[in-house]
Amino acid sequence: MTRLLPSLILTALLLAAWEIACRALQLPVYLLPPPSDVAVSLIQRAPLLLSSAAATFWMAFQALVVAFVIGGGLALAVSLNQTSERAVRPLAVALQVTPVVAIAPLVLIWAGLDHADRAVVALAAAVAFFPLFSGVLTGLKSADPDLERLFDLYGASALQRLIRLRLPAALPFILEGLRVAAGLSVIGAVVAEFVSGSGATQGLAWRLLEAGNRLRTADMLAALACLMIMGLALNAAVGAVEGAVRRRLA
Amino acid sequence: MADTTSTCAAALRQVVVRYPGRPPIGPVDLTVAPGEIVAVVGASGAGKSTILRLLAGLEATSDGSVFRGDGRGRTGFVFQNATLMPWANIQSNVALPLELAGVPRDDARRRAAEALAAVGLGDRLAARPRQLSGGMAMRASLARALVTEPDLLLLDEPFAALDSVTRRRLIEDLHALWASRTPRPAIVFVTHDVEEAVYLAERTVVLDAASGRVTADLPSPGALPRPDGWRSDRSFREAVERLADELARSMAAPSGAGPEGVAA
């Protein structure tokens, strides 16, 4: 709690300055509503925002699982053979550098316009894929070369080497990849929801769009605050797991 | 050649190793008799570690042949660093070679505990590697190499990173461990410390800085384990001087290999 205190104080100061500025300058609420209006909107729309947050979170979580299974599995397969790594890595990088907004319309067509949620999951998974693939692959190759030699000396099988040496050595890298990917999967889900542009997904991005169309700025900011809190919570949760595992391993 | 294998613990015959972009190492001839302790000295880059890896079967030869005992666990290896798995406790680390060979877990752990007791770590079975001092970690590494009861023990400058008191104590302990086993394992010990070589080994081979060939093969005087205060004995001092001279000569080769990294 003491570690959080400075950032909490800063946040409170910024909110207070914002409130005072809005009142002093008499800004129109469609331009910049004071934080008190946003708080009122948050409370009044809480059930709707919560269900939307749950929808976005669920899509991002599914995407994270899909990306972990595909990215981790591919990294595992590739780690066994150097030629396959040379074949796969450029394609993985190509996927990473392609903006998700640009491929979203295509994926929407492929998923079917009635299945916007599937498209969102697929797109968010595409965004979360790279840090997981890269993290698992780097981790699997991070074991001490002398330990690798020791496993050679005692005639370890490929499976023994994987389970007793490479996976434990990779764990910190995998967790780091998961932490980055968790944040990215939320970003990917929101961007994909935006592009899908319909109410089919009922996520937080749709709440943002909907409120924006009606020029209800306080509602927009409330949805945005929800997204922010969700991202922070997700990051903290994965970070806590990462820290616990690190303490057990190191 | 068949008779050679039956009378030695390990041997290199005219072995050459070529790395891309480097002069080749060898041809190297080296025979290690069962139960003997051989030190290998030479300039940095003379191929000391390569010789150990060849004897362990961890390095492919470009030419020549390597004889070594067959079967898993016949060879133990101690690296420059303790090379313990940080995520496992000491007992699991030491049990690893046995478990990889398919020894049942309980049996492996019991034998690991015995091996750790033999190096004086019997009360630290549950400790993690990071909780151990450098000397204790090296002891655990030694226990891991001995847990399979190998006939050949290969040590790659294992004490280089330790302070001199710990180093001397470990050398005495290594002698005691070696003498307590029947049959005694052969030990090949890489070092760049001339005194350590004379003290620890029954004979020392000197590698040429440029080619990695064996240029001298000097016996150490006296018997093992060493009597107290043997380091101030005249026979020890003379053997050290002789070996230091040979080592200096091995580095004076026209290749221009410098004496850096060599502590006398």
Automatic annotation (TrEMBL), chain A:
It comes from the Bacteria. Residues 53-238 form the ABC transmembrane type-1 domain. One of its GO terms (biological process) is transmembrane transport. It comes from Brevundimonas alba. Belongs to the binding-protein-dependent transport system permease family. GO terms for cellular component: plasma membrane. It is a multi-pass membrane protein. It is found in: Cell membrane. Keywords: Cell membrane, Membrane, Transmembrane, Transmembrane helix, Transport. This is NitT/TauT family transport system permease protein. The chain crosses the membrane at residues 48-78, 90-113, 119-140, 180-200, 220-241.
UniProtKB/TrEMBL annotation, chain B:
It holds the Pfam family ABC_tran. GO terms for molecular function: ATP binding; ATP hydrolysis activity. It comes from the Bacteria. Residues 10-234 form the ABC transporter domain. Keywords: ATP-binding, Nucleotide-binding, Transport. InterPro entries: AAA+_ATPase (IPR003593), ABC_transporter-like_ATP-bd (IPR003439), ABC_transporter-like_CS (IPR017871), ABC_transporter_ATP-bind (IPR050166), P-loop_NTPase (IPR027417). Gene3D superfamilies: P-loop containing nucleotide triphosphate hydrolases. Belongs to the ABC transporter superfamily. This is NitT/TauT family transport system ATP-binding protein.
